[in-house]
Amino acid sequence: MSDGAGRLDVRKTYKLYIGGAFPRSESGRSYEVTAADGRFLANAARASRKDLRDAVVAARKAQPGWAAATAYNRGQVLYRVAEVLEGRREQFAAEVAAAWGVDATAAAGEVDAAIDRWVWYAGWSDKIAVVDGAANPVAGPYFNFSIPEPTGVVGIVAPQTSPLLGLVSVIAPVVVSGNTCVVIASHRMPLPAITLSEVLATSDVPGGVINLLTGHVEELAPHLAGHMDVNAIDLAGVEPDAAAELEVAAADNIKRVLRPPTDGEPDWTAEPDPRRILRFTETKTVWHPMGV
Amino acid sequence: MTTPSEPATSDAAVATISDVPDLITPTWEYAPAPEAREIVTIRSSYGLFVGGEFVESSDGRAFKTVNPASEEVLAEVTEAGPADVDRAVTAARRAYDDVWGPMSGRERAKYLYRIARTIQERARELAVLETLDNGKPIRETRDVDVPLAAAHFFHHAGWADKLAHAGYGADPRPLGVAGQIIPWNFPLLMLAWKIAPALACGNTVVLKPAETTPLSALAFAEICQQADLPPGVVNIVTGAGETGRAVVEHPDVDKVAFTGSTEVGKLIRRAVAGTRKKLTLELGGKAANVVFDDAALDQAVEGIVNGIFFNQGHVCCAGSRLLVQESVVEPVMDRLKRRLGKLRVGDPLDKNTDLGAINSSEQLERITELVEAGAAEGAHLWQAECTLPERGWWFPPTVFTEVSQSHRIAREEIFGPVLSVLTFRTPDEAVDKANNTPYGLSAGVWTEKGSRILWMAQRLRAGVVWANTFNRFDPASPFGGYKESGFGREGGRHGLEAYLDV
């Protein structure tokens, strides 16, 4: 606005989120993000392979500490994300509305569901070992138990059409068990992801636990799938036809792969399945002799 | 192999256990105690087991399976070609659609119980057959392989009618036809690990045993006949890598399960990319076996021996990297070498034999190559003194000391009776060194301190951690790896997931 009566709004520069900081892409590139109606919204950072590698380094560095946190602590951190997100409902509703081309009321439903999803997964932190662990009755004088453990660093290609609820629905089940992650946000609707990282940075999520990249999925995903220090990938936002190539790349270090559904993106508003958490855990079995 | 003289590592001022003369127990010579091989009838040639009967190949050739302890040809076996594999998959699909899929869990369970009992009834025969074809000692087939194989069918039989209680939803469904490929190190046991859960969950199977050890799988086919298992529920296709590839790539196979090398596992992972086939992989390992200075040393030495010399070291979870706390290296090595001097290497059918034959000449070459690399890279080689038979493929118990983490023998899976010894000073260093591998199948910890065991167990990146024991297996206990040791678990409630559509 330049009529002198009003004020010119201060636009936001959207950057990457790596290791708890907000760098621009080292490549200096950006890409234009438009609203559903075609109007210009922002220039988002276009992450490069180097940014992705930096994000993996940050995720790896953060992983042991995050996994070593108590389940109670991780649950509280996830719940804290919901608290901070709740305080910024209006902003997220506006961003989702712009991306989707719906009014703020309709977009608020997506935001509310995303908040509730953090709460839902927060509660799983100290229950996943209860439902998936086991005391195994082996034949012999041994005490034998199995527990789920995080698999390590997880690469996530976020859902392309659900820029906030879908995003939260793939991040929360990965980090609740103690994994850290590198996420490639929705290409066309990346702004809620970067605003979410502002929430993460101001809640209690340690830097590096969640790293968010904006850019071109087809440019970044092959490097994520082939990265030798990534333990698993979630292909939620990948077209089924494009998944095969990524699965091949994932074979280089025997990554755990969660394939995309064949019939398009699922209904993210449906009740989630806690087995999504177990896709990114390992089962460790410990044997110990019994005797006096 | 000649035996180099032992290095003078022990400080003269410190008395080691081998300096103490043993006046109480004289050394007794063992008389030969061979198990009778007449209990086994081996046919001169075998067809494929498809649709409940042994059939001739339509496009395959034949190959020979030999006794690695004598190089004697045991039988001629069919190498299944793509058309044979297709016939087997078709039989499995028909059995799945018409009989096994619709059958109630209660009835499926009874078939599995029958199989378990028949394995027990024919235990001695199976043990001898396995020893003849594989080269492993009769003591191990008799006491480990065959009883555990029966136990796997018995355990999974009970799951067949209780799947709704396994934590995978109220009505978990089977996947369909499972294509399964197993290695030569535990031929019958790996068959049981694969077939028992697959059938319990309602799948039918096409199984390919290893080309050097097909005979116990063919004997198992007869057991399926004795159990009146419906035709096509279990199909056995013998052959080598090409046969396995045909199984993996067959479009009507819904699930692929593989146990074997990481290298082949990666090929299979790529082959199923872009399909909806469910995949589980049990791959290689380079397990650390960590001995702390407060460990009960005699027990630890037994555990070290069991960890790496069990089954000639042909064990993916073998404790091939020994990590000893620096302050006890000398007593541990001293006792270990003394113990290894008592290991009996030779005729696998002799009930006193500890170490049998290497499974194939190819495997012997691989072991030899890596051992030569270890010596060339500067590690110190020690081999137990023993007389090896003239015929057959043999390798003496071998220990490398002065091994560094960059040596090939500390990084690559040798899959033979070769132990690499490294040292550490602090628990943190032990964890770092133990986890310094792309593998993550198993690990061992020896210490009398309970809190340290739990601390170590939490930090070791491995699917199985044995504390004050090693190489224990049980059908109720999940087994499987982290990282490049593969994904999926076998055994217990967790193992069912691999064979259910969840």
Could you outline the blueprint of secondary structure elements for this entry?
The complex is a heterodimer of chains A (292) and B (502).
Chain A: E1 30-34, E2 40-45, H1 49-68, H2 71-86, H3 89-100, H4 104-122, H5 128-132, E3 134-135, E4 142-150, E5 153-157, H6 165-175, E6 180-184, H7 191-202, E7 210-213, H8 217-226, E8 232-234, H9 240-250, E9 256-258, H10 275-278, E10 281-289
Parallel strand pairs in A: 5-6, 5-8, 6-7, 8-9
Antiparallel strand pairs in A: 1-2, 3-4, 4-10
Chain B: E1 45-46, E2 48-50, E3 53-55, E4 61-67, E5 72-79, H1 82-100, H2 105-121, H3 123-134, H4 138-160, E6 177-181, H5 187-200, E7 204-208, H6 215-226, E8 234-236, H7 241-249, E9 255-259, H8 262-272, E10 278-282, E11 288-291, H9 297-309, E12 321-325, H10 329-340, H11 361-376, E13 380-383, E14 398-401, H12 408-411, E15 418-424, H13 427-434, E16 442-446, H14 450-459, E17 464-467, H15 492-496
Parallel strand pairs in B: 1-5, 6-7, 6-9, 7-8, 9-10, 11-12, 11-16, 12-15, 14-15, 16-17
Antiparallel strand pairs in B: 2-3, 4-5, 13-14
Helix pairs in contact in B: 1-7, 2-4, 3-4, 4-5, 9-10
How would you portray this structure in words?
- The complex is a heterodimer of chains A (292) and B (502).
- With 292 residues, chain A is α/β, with parallel strands linked by helices.
- Chain A contains 10 helices and 10 strands.
- Chain A has helices spanning 49-68, 71-86, 89-100, 104-122, 128-132, 165-175, 191-202, 217-226, 240-250, 275-278; strands at 30-34, 40-45, 134-135, 142-150, 153-157, 180-184, 210-213, 232-234, 256-258, 281-289.
- In chain A, the strands form 3 sheets. In chain A, strands 7-6-5-8-9 form a 5-stranded parallel beta sheet, with helices on both faces. A 3-stranded antiparallel beta sheet of chain A has the order 3-4-10. Chain A has a two-stranded antiparallel ribbon with strand order 1-2.
- In chain A, strand 5 (153-157), helix 6 (165-175) and strand 6 (180-184) form a beta-alpha-beta unit.
- Chain B is globular and about 70 Å long.
- Chain B is α/β, with parallel strands linked by helices.
- Chain B has helices at residues 82-100, 105-121, 123-134, 138-160, 187-200, 215-226, 241-249, 262-272, 297-309, 329-340, 361-376, 408-411, 427-434, 450-459, 492-496, and strands at 45-46, 48-50, 53-55, 61-67, 72-79, 177-181, 204-208, 234-236, 255-259, 278-282, 288-291, 321-325, 380-383, 398-401, 418-424, 442-446, 464-467.
- In chain B, the strands form 4 sheets. Chain B has a 7-stranded mixed beta sheet, sandwiched between helices. In chain B, strands 8-7-6-9-10 form a 5-stranded parallel beta sheet, sandwiched between helices. A 3-stranded mixed beta sheet of chain B has the order 1-5-4, with helices on one face.
- Chain B starts with 44 loop residues before the first strand and ends in a 6-residue tail after the last helix.
- In chain B, 58% of the residues are buried.
- The A-B interface holds A 131-132, 134, 136-140, 142, 144, 146, 151, 231, 243-245, 247-248, 250-254, 256, 259, 262, 275, 282-289 and B 151, 167-168, 262, 265-266, 269-270, 272-274, 276, 281, 283, 438, 453, 457, 462-469, 472, 474, 476-480, 482-487, 489, 492-494, 502.
- Strand 10 of chain A pairs parallel with strand 17 (464-467) of chain B.
